[in-house]
Amino acid sequence: MHIDWAALGSVFGVSLVVTVVLVGLFVLGVIGLSKRETATASGGSAALATAGAYACFAACVAAVAYGIYLIVA
Questions:
Q1: What's the predicted TM-score (pTM) here?
Q2: Membrane-crossing residues (predicted)?
Q3: Which value, to the nearest 10 degrees, does the dihedral of the CA atoms of residues 13, 14, 17, 21 take?
């Protein structure tokens, strides 16, 4: 049995980077929703924070859907 260590390392590296980016996007979405709650409580408008949060969540969903597509196809 021959293991292609370069390919294994590249898969590990890409997986690590994609995981960190997805977690970061999700955290930004949660922070955006938190800012919306804070702005609503203080009587302000939080349309930008809400739109940013939804955009982050949409990017997470798109990345997961693309990953599932790559696995299934």
A1: 0.79
A2: 6-34, 46-72
A3: -170
In a domain? residue 21: yes
pLDDT digits (tens, 9 = 90+) for 24-45: 999 999 999 988 878 777 776 7
Range of the domain at 34: 15-72
Is the residue at 3 inside a domain?
A: no
Amino acid, single-letter form, for residue 53: A
- How far apart, in whole angstroms, are the C-alpha atoms of residue 38 and residue 7? 46
CA 22 to CA 37: how far, in whole Å? 23
How far apart CA 49 and CA 38 sit, in angstroms, is 10
